[in-house]
């Protein structure tokens, strides 16, 4: 499942938490070697301090940052969720999908005893056997009803449910009770190769009973009574930006090791200072400025791996300035993507080509550069397109009806590196005669700006919860997408999305997914920028948290190594 990353709010580096065992002297000033820059193919798929449950200390606390603000929408399945929502959810709620170091999916045994898939009469049938002990905090058993509730909310039969992702759920024919309440049989309408992307998490059936409850029950309310995890919410303060978790005495699995986990909403500069002052235990350091600030710290570990993030420039095709495709194309042709990549990774001794897809990562099988010519840096073509669209250049900027061609982009508190990227885009656009105006906003305003499409352009990105990127083709590019804020869709793209989803095997699905993306990017609404490495520093001894890549571990396995 895709979600909006808080890269727009927090530092571009602080998207994932990673580490490896190195002392003060081993903290690195870059990624590559002295004579060669590293690339994405040089990155580890994950990099962190591994420890078994028995190797962890009993007790202790963990302090983490969650970006500039806590999203008021705490329902991980809701359309207004973001990476912050998805980061918080598995600590206190059913986390079904886990991934090992090789990105192999497996079901969390605390919730699922076994799972089996088979093809029956040309349809994928998945049988989930639920752990007999699995129970929500209010005493409601975790059983087939939770699966049915998810199916009801996510299958597109009722548009009043504002859900983040319908892919797979809308392709289910039925979700039925099996031999008992603790078994559920999911039958798809056809052979569906991506069934593992569904039911990554479960929501209490009381929350899916009707659209109003689904949409509003979790607004500024963590609903601890509906949770089921190794931790529970002790307190949450949206104004102060703090959320505190403690051990859940109703948890049936191995007890959590940590006594308390505290999340704080911090702007980038405050986040760095908190880490320097021992108030945070992990922080992204994937920029030159952050690496410089931590280089003299004692007793920290630094980890580097692939980054599960896809940065992009997204245009609002319904805004007055971008209704004309020629103007959208002109804006994209004014952007020197290789230069933006260079700025993003300045001082890291790392390089990569501009990103070519918002579905697959360069290190994932099936990846193609789907951007095409719309991503070419071509100032002359940019000016030509604007003239064709009826704009006339006067002084420094193109004008129409006496008004400058202005592109408004919301800006949130950012790192110096992020500000440099913004400044470069502004300067590049000015060269061809487009005025870029940055509108300053508080981090807490981000969800509403996104929901209301209150922008001409947005510098943002996606985080991903699994390696099944092609399975998200419809979520990203389909006409019913709530994730895609461009407002630019077509029947041809919808048809290719459906061909991808309805393919009998992964290879065919990937082929049609790439075709759908090529057509979608031709509309000049989304311009992929970069992915990059994930570099994180942590307090020495923090285990099973770091440059995780796609790795997902049960939260009770996070703690301090003995």
Describe the protein's architecture and organization.
Keywords: Signal. Residues 1-25 form the signal peptide. GO terms for molecular function: peptide transmembrane transporter activity. It comes from Boudabousia liubingyangii. Residues 117-478 form the Solute-binding protein family domain. By secondary structure, the chain is of the alpha+beta class. It folds into three domains: 13-31 and 40-96 and 216-306 and 534-560, Periplasmic binding protein-like II (D-Maltodextrin-Binding Protein, domain 2); 105-213, Dipeptide-binding Protein, domain 1 (Alpha-Beta Complex), CATH 3.90.76; 309-528, Roll (Dipeptide-binding Protein, domain 3), CATH 3.10.105.10. 22% of the residues lie in helices and 22% in strands. It contains 13 helices and 24 strands. The strands form eight sheets. The chain has a four-stranded antiparallel beta sheet, with no helix packed on it. Strand 16 and strand 17 form a beta hairpin. The longest helix is centred in the last third of the chain and has 17 residues, at 416-432.
What tags apply to this protein structure?
D-Maltodextrin-Binding Protein, domain 2, Dipeptide-binding Protein, domain 3, single chain, Dipeptide-binding Protein, domain 1, four-stranded mixed beta sheet, 13 helices, 562 residues, 3 domains
């Amino acid at each position: 499942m895709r979600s909006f990353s808080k890269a727009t709010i927090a530092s571009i580096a602080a998207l994932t938490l990673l580490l490896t065992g190195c002392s003060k002297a081993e903290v690195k000033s870059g990624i590559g070697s002295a004579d060669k820059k590293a690339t994405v193919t040089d990155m580890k798929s994950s990099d962190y301090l591994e420890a078994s449950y028995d190797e962890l200390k009993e007790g202790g606390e963990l302090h983490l940052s969650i970006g500039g603000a806590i999203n008021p929408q705490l329902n991980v399945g809701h359309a207004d969720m973001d990476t912050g929502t998805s980061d918080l959810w598995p600590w206190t709620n059913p986390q079904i999908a886990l991934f090992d170091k090789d990105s192999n999916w497996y079901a969390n045994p605390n919730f699922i005893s076994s799972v089996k898939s088979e093809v029956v009469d040309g349809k994928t049938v998945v049988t989930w056997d639920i752990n007999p002990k699995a129970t929500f905090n209010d005493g409601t058993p975790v059983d087939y009803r939770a699966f049915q509730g998810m199916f009801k909310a996510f299958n597109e039969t009722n548009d009043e449910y504002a859900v983040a992702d319908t892919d797979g759920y809308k392709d289910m024919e039925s979700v039925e009770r099996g031999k008992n309440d603790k078994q559920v049989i999911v039958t798809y309408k056809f052979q569906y190769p991506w069934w593992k992307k569904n039911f990554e998490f479960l929501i209490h059936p009381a929350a899916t009973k009707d659209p109003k409850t689904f949409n509003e029950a979790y607004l500024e309310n963590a609903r601890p009574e509906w949770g089921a995890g190794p931790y529970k919410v002790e307190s949450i303060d949206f104004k102060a930006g703090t959320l505190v978790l403690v051990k859940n005495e109703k948890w049936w699995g191995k007890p959590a090791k940590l006594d308390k986990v505290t999340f704080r909403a911090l702007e980038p500069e405050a986040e760095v200072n908190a880490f320097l002052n021992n108030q945070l235990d992990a922080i992204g350091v994937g920029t030159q400025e952050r690496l410089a600030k931590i280089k003299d710290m004692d007793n920290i570990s630094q980890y580097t791996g692939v980054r599960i993030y896809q940065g992009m420039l997204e245009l609002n095709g319904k805004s007055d300035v971008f209704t004309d495709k020629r103007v959208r194309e002109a804006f994209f042709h004014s952007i020197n993507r290789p230069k933006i990549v260079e700025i993003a990774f300045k001082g890291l001794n790392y390089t990569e080509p501009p990103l070519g897809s918002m579905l697959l990562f360069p290190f994932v099988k099936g990846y193609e550069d789907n951007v095409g010519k719309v991503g070419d840096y071509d100032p002359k073509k940019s000016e030509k397109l604007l003239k064709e669209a009826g704009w006339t250049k006067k002084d420094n900027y193109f004008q129409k009806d006496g008004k400058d061609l202005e592109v408004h982009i919301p800006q949130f508190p950012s790192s110096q590196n992020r500000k440099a990227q913004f400044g470069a885009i502004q300067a590049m656009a000015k060269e061809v005669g487009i005025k870029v105006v940055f509108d300053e906003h508080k981090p807490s305003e981000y969800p509403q700006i996104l929901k209301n499409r209150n922008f001409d352009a947005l510098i943002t990105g996606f985080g991903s919860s699994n390696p099944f990127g092609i399975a998200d083709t419809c979520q990203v590019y389909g006409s019913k997408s709530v994730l895609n804020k461009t407002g630019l869709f077509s029947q041809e793209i919808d048809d290719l999305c459906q061909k991808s989803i309805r393919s009998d095997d992964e290879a065919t699905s990937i082929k049609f997914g790439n075709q759908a993306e090529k057509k979608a990017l031709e509309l000049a609404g989304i311009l992929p920028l970069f992915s990059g490495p994930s570099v994180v520093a942590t307090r020495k001894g923090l285990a099973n948290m770091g440059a995780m890549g796609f790795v997902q571990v049960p939260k009770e396995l996070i703690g301090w190594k003995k």
